[in-house]
Amino acid sequence: MSAVANDDSRALAEVDAVVIGAGFAGLYAAYKLRELGLSHRAFEQGSDVGGTWYWNRYPGASSDSESWVYSFSFSEELEQEWTWSSRFPRQPEILSYLQHVAGRFDLRKAFDFNTQVVAATYDETSNRWQVQTAQGETVAASFLITAVGCLSAAQVPNIPGREDFTGPWYHTGQWPHEQVDFRGKHVGIIGTGSSGIQAIPIIAGEAEHLTVFQRTPNFSVPSRNAPLPPERVAELKKNIKAIREFCRWSTIGQPYDFKPDEALKVSDEERQRQFEADWEKGGFEWMFGSYSDLVFDKAANDYASDFVRDKIRATVKNPDTAEKLLPTGYPIATKRLPLDSGYFETFNRDNVSLVDLRETPIEAIVDKGVRTSAGTHELDMLVFATGFDALTGPLTRIDIRGRGGLSLKDKWTEGPRTYLGVASEGFPNMFMITGPGSPSVLGNMPTSIEQHVDWICGCITHMQQQGVSAAEPTSKAEGEWGAHVKELADDTLFPQVDSWYLGANIPGKSRVFLPYIGGFGTYRQLCNDVAEKGYEGFRFF
Ligand code: N01
């Protein structure tokens, strides 16, 4: 490995490491590689840094993690300098933050923007990755570090007639940079996941009329987003070290954790009182700072599900609409729980209508709107809030080939196979930041990302110290990890419903629970143990 500083690395055709992506993960990877003195190049499809927050510019887009932990912890100065304006930061503010980080630490110089990596091939003779861009460049690297995000491969459903629609259409995850003007327009939105639930109240406030096409009613909890007063900011900054440390060892990387109590072991009055008190607080804490049995025990979960259904009934004035909005048939939070700002209230507006696709399915998209079995809904604009090919999609959309020409996509046909969600057998020196099989999407992403990048860099340092040039997980370690990830998921209620956690939203995708559900803290400890045992489960050569 060369210890070339990479002041002008963009000219290099051969480097120690290539990073793909310029979101939270790619930026921190570039920072750490520079700290290690490793030459690197980084590629980003967008025209600037931001990742998720570069692409998801839809109205209402905001983080569901509290701002003071939805950020980097690697620099105390950065933590103290930056002040978030509200509890849950909105997309423009997060994007400004990431732009600030890129500028403050001079990270842009590692990146080629507007550059898409289309292929990466491991050359066994040279023990190098040959990384190819759509722009025609090939760069050789000892290490391939993917920072491609978990929810970045947008999924537009293949509804017949999609090309026939004559108005503009958008996917929430590929939102244009220009302002989209809904004023005076009849707008349709398909999808009521987190993106739809964030966008619907805002679009409804602008459009002449909004038609919401709902296939599966969703649970949602109020975010109760609010500005952060200066005294709260001061208190958070004072205690931030302890708050971060708590997050690192918590279940979902957030500044709260499940209570020791169980919903089934407290009285009805106590449970109701607790649910109400937490409801007033808002945020994920309502669910993931609540009783510890909610995600394991159906009877416990039923109490939480019923509580939210009652809230929906109490909020939505039209009883028929309320009935259509009621999520039934699956436990709360087994589909990713959205947070909202006035989502259910939006259905009390005169300019909003709800189409229940279970009663009247979409037959086709036509030139002037969406045709369901009940007739055509005329629309000027159409929004797809239809989600992503989660976790595996961002990786398999790149033609990644390991030893013997093995394609990652082919290897993962029956579901992803990884060790710790960070590496895969047959792909030496390829490290995935928050890959499938790691906790990633089950909590606060920056907490996950920092842990992964630190661990990967620790592994690279170990290799330098040992004088070895390649690392690859063993088949045994990978098999055992896959079985462990599955076993943990099977102990919960999560596999009981079709969700993107299981790849069930993508036609033909194997139904495998993708993230590690054992908790951030437990996972961190496992990774630390692996490192302490000389990166047990890897073979080095
Ligand atoms: O996507 P989703 P998302 N016809 O897959 C529907 C993260 N996120 O972009 O449930 C009709 O959750 C689909 O219906 P159904 C977060 O982790 C984070 O909203 O499959 N409908 C569903 O209602 C989140 O979970 C934040 O029946 C169709 C919707 O589209 C993840 O991203 C903000 C359809 C898709 O919901 C993905 O959320 C936003 C079809 N053919 C997102 N195909 C923050 O924290 C799909 N649907 C900020």
Q: What ligands can be seen in this structure?
A: 3-acetylpyridine adenine dinucleotide
Oligomer: single chain
Q: Would you tell me the overall average pLDDT?
A: 97
Known CATH architecture of the domain at 6-49 and 107-153 and 390-540? 3-Layer(bba) Sandwich
* CATH topology grouping of the domain at 6-49 and 107-153 and 390-540: FAD/NAD(P)-binding domain
Q: How many helix segments?
A: 16
The count of DSSP E runs of length 2 or more, i.e. the number of strands, is 20
CA-atom Rg in angstroms: 23 Å
CATH superfamily of the domain at 6-49 and 107-153 and 390-540: FAD/NAD(P)-binding domain
Largest sheet: 8 strands, mixed
- Assign a percent range to the helix content: 25-40%
The class by helix and strand makeup works out as alpha/beta
Strand content: 15-25%
Separation, N- and C-terminal Cα atoms: 14 Å
Describe the structure.
The protein has a domain at 6-49 and 107-153 and 390-540: FAD/NAD(P)-binding domain, CATH 3.50.50. It is 33% helix and 16% strand. With 541 residues, the chain is an alpha/beta fold. The radius of gyration is 23 Å and the shape is globular. The strands form five sheets. Strands 1, 2, 3, 4, 5, 6, 17 and 18 form an eight-stranded mixed β-sheet that branches. Mean pLDDT is 97; it is low at 1-6. 3-acetylpyridine adenine dinucleotide is lined by residues 62-64, 151, 157, 159, 172, 190-196, 198, 215-216, 336, 357, 362, 385-388, 441, 500, 505.
